[in-house]
Amino acid sequence: MDSMEVEDLGVLSPKEFNQLYAILKFFSEPIRYPPDAKMQDNISYEIFINICYHLPPKDLLMLACVCKHFKNMLDGSILPISWDIWKTSRERFTPFKDMDPPKGLNEMEFSRLLNFESGCEFCKRNDKRIHIYWVACVRSCKECLHKRAKRKIFKLLHLNSRY
Ligand SMILES: [Zn+2]
């Protein structure tokens, strides 16, 4: 990239123009799922799905953060087979085999909730004892839960005292 100085951007050579055109075209085309052709890195859709079926939930969660393509591929509302990938992964790699996602959570959100390795959802610490509080669907340490509960109760009392 050293050869491309800022002042070089003023006039584009035909080659640069074609590259820029290809990039803009790529980003302006709607993405369909599953894609017809190969995805970036030359991984076919089928291979991607196959790989995903062998990954634990924490790796799927990381994969969904890699890029928009992977995120969409793992989003069951875009590609319904993804719900099965998340479910299979949970059943194979976690002790929560026989549980369905709690009401209001989809398979991916459920996997995120069960991801104990990322610690408390609020303070992000994983050196404390972490619990899942099923009623609230949160993964939290006791301190954060107490802080949040106090704040909620205070808000409720404050709201009630105005009427
Ligand atoms: Zn916490």
TrEMBL record:
Q: Which CDD domains does the UniProt entry name for this protein?
A: F-box_SF (cd09917)
Q: Which domain of life is it from?
A: Eukaryota
InterPro entries in the record:
F-box-like_dom_sf, F-box_dom
Domain F-box, chain residue ranges per copy: 42-77
Q: Know the name of this protein?
A: F-box domain-containing protein
Q: Which organism is it from?
A: Glomus cerebriforme
